[in-house]
Amino acid sequence: MRILLSNDDGIDAPGLKCLERVARKLSEDVWVVAPERDQSGVSHALSLSDPVRYRSLGDRKFAVEGTPTDSVLLGILNLIPPPRPSLLLSGVNRGGNLGDDVTYSGTVAAAMEGTLLGIPSIALSQYTVQREKANWATAENYAPDLIRRLVTIGWSSDVLMNVNFPDVPEGKVGGVSVAYQGRGKPGSVLERRVDARGRDYYWIGSTRTNESVSDGSDLSEILAGRITVTPLHMNLTDQEAYEKLSKALK
To answer: Which of 74, 166, 184, 204 has the fewest CB atoms within 10 Å, i.e. is most exposed?
Structure first.
């Protein structure tokens, strides 16, 4: 199968190199179209007011001056000749994409864009307790077989797969868990600083905790040392609220 790889950590990210090794265990027809630099936290942003440029890094590999969504669009609609990719893999992200953080994730957004374009898509992330120490070997060891199994099973065209690998050595993974998207306690913070000209500026940080973790969620399962697979639906309509409003607003 023809596989397209992208990410949000940038073209030089170690997680993307890990994903390349994974993909080449599945196919010889692998293409890489990823952002030129780190685009973490940009979610499903699309560049509409700026031109989108790219540069070739050799056969079937391109760096895009833009977001993960830009990269997927450019890859599928322009850079990759027919036929279209039969699978899109996004990642491997440094850090988990779990609970509420899914809404911020450029890694998940790249898989969203692939799904919108009709390509089965999987987002993959390596959860880390200490960001500088990622267990890439865990993702690299388990991803190929898990991807094969998911592709064999198949899923709806309006669903993407969100996969997270636990922060444990590859020999201590406690299996695979199908988990629902959990809710992490919001804890974003602003760190105020002053530049050389006396003007205020801010860094946005996170102090998210797991106090609201519940059994069966992606957060609880990853903390238990298991690989999590969460199917995410592109239709965000809440059916219960829809039915209630339909009756109340007639």
So the answer is: 204
